[in-house]
Amino acid sequence: MSQPATTTPNPAATRKQERLNAVMRRILRSPLHRVVSGKLLIVTVVGRKSGRVYEHPVAYAEHDGTLLIGTAATWRHNLRPGEPVRIGLRRREIDADWEVVTDMDAAAEPYRTILEQNPTHGKYAGISLNSDGSVNREELAAAFARGTAVVRLRPRG
Q1: How far apart are CA 34 and CA 60, in angstroms?
Q2: Cα–Cα distance, 129 to 18 (Å, whole number)
Q3: Which of these, 60, 81, 111, 122, has the minimum number of CB atoms within 10 Å of its CB?
């Protein structure tokens, strides 16, 4: 739910997003999680330079035992090669292996799944499905040019 990397931060919008993220983290960790945990999880990353822990509520889609996240947010740059990422999924803290897909052709099919399960994401990302169910390649290319990628998570255990 973080802001895209290519936008100039608006301080008021940033504060609003931080408040929304804090509310979503509380809900996702509470007994009320069922309201949103089918669509949102928490990704925990450690800042490369700061060492600070960041917890980001993000939308996801499930496909063949993996969790797919379409994002232009910069948190993915804090994923550490060879190390799993910690996620909060349905009130459980688990480790997941990860892969960032930045190749548009490789991301088209995962993005189709993301958009089928979460059409609202497409409105924010500027990506839609064609009438035949395929991803609109022009919109996908424009989103990838703005820094969008797919993060594929494989929960351990």
Answers
A1: 14
A2: 30
A3: 81
**Rounded to an integer, what is the distance from CA 45 to the centroid of its chain?**
13
How many structural domains does the chain have?
1
Q: pTM, whole model, 2 decimals?
A: 0.80
Whether 125 is in a domain gets the answer yes
Q: What is the pLDDT of residues 39-70, one digit of tens each?
A: 888 899 998 888 888 988 999 999 999 999 99
Q: Which domain holds residue 119?
A: 11-155
**Contacts from 131-136 at CB under 8 Å and sequence distance 24+?**
134/108, 135/108, 135/109, 135/111
Whether 129 is in a domain gets the answer yes
Residue 42 within any structural domain of the chain:
yes
